[in-house]
Design goal:
3-stranded antiparallel β-sheet, 12 helices, Arc Repressor Mutant, subunit A, mainly alpha, 292 residues
Length: 292
């Protein structure tokens, strides 16, 4: 309730309520890759009731932020697009709300901290629980029942390694084929192309922490990307060139589509549990690496 009130107050000057902001921001995220979602798809994406989404969409249409169009292939479906005016408003609102969320989660280390990520993961797991469907849970078993749950397989470092290698192969062989970029080069290039200009020092630090490589190797990767003509150095800042921006604009939607295919149909509880396990393993591994 406090969060809703705070966000509502923050976006009120832009003519939005908290609920309208949630819908418009979600719609912006869904349409960036060129997809025009239906009201049903937006409802599934936000977790809100379709009737509520319809009501909010009509309200946003009435003020010129959203356009509702009948689906050409299904007369019962309505698809939603953001108008230029709506785009201007939501592009102003998102940074405002982002700053507010940083303030509200400051005691947990900010929105990107491991504590906040665990909190979000736990909340998402709770929201996805459907007790009536978990018929094999201990609460729903009758006394003396012979039904038992098989022990889940243990997650090993080999499993994690195989998955990581598969995902890297998908990226390099499916998306980066013909770009002359390997995995470390893409990680560095993507960081440069998808965020405001960053200093070489900061990027080197991020690469060392994320890829677990030394400073010399990280610097060599950046030099290779610069030689390929995808980035340029302006002062101490690394910026994408026109060719770099064009490449990033081409690959990013393909990467998003591939990610959706990989995660399609996976249970949200399973994903939340996997996230918590991997986060814990990462934290423990980093702590061991930091030992003398």
């Amino acid at each position: 309730m406090e969060l809703r009130a705070a966000v509502g107050a923050a976006v009120d000057r832009l003519g939005l309520t908290h609920a309208q902001y949630s819908v418009l921001a979600s719609l912006r995220g869904m349409t960036r890759a060129g997809h025009i979602p239906s009201q049903r798809e937006l409802a599934d994406y936000t977790g809100l009731d379709p009737i509520y989404i319809s009501k909010l969409a009509r309200a946003l249409e009435s003020v010129g932020f959203v356009q509702r169009v009948e689906d050409a292939q299904d007369s019962r479906a309505v698809r939603l697009t953001i108008t230029s005016r709506g785009g201007e408003v939501i592009d102003q609102a998102v940074p405002v709300v982002g700053g507010l969320l940083e303030e509200l989660t400051a005691s947990l280390g900010g929105t990107t901290s491991s504590r906040t990520r665990r909190l979000v993961s736990d909340l998402e797991a709770l929201l996805a629980v459907r007790p009536a469907l978990h018929l094999s849970s201990p609460i729903n078993r009758q006394k003396g029942s012979s039904q038992s749950m098989s022990a889940p397989p243990l997650l090993t470092s080999r499993d994690i390694g195989v998955t990581e290698n598969t995902l890297r192969a998908l990226l390099t062989k499916k998306l980066l084929r013909g770009t002359n970029l390997d995995y470390p080069q893409w990680v560095a290039f993507n960081a440069i192309a998808s965020q405001p200009p960053a200093s070489a020092t900061r990027l080197l630090s991020q690469m060392q922490a994320g890829l677990k490589i030394d400073q010399h190797t990280a610097a060599k990767v950046i030099d290779q990307i610069e030689t390929s003509g995808l980035i340029t150095v302006v002062g101490d800042e690394l910026r994408p060139t026109d060719d770099g921006r064009a490449l990033h604009a081409r690959v990013t939607p393909q990467l998003q589509a591939l990610t959706q295919r990989m995660y399609a149909g996976l249970d949200s509880d399973d994903l939340a549990a996997a996230y918590r396990v991997l986060s814990t393993l990462t934290e423990r591994g980093n702590a061991i690496l930091a030992e003398p």
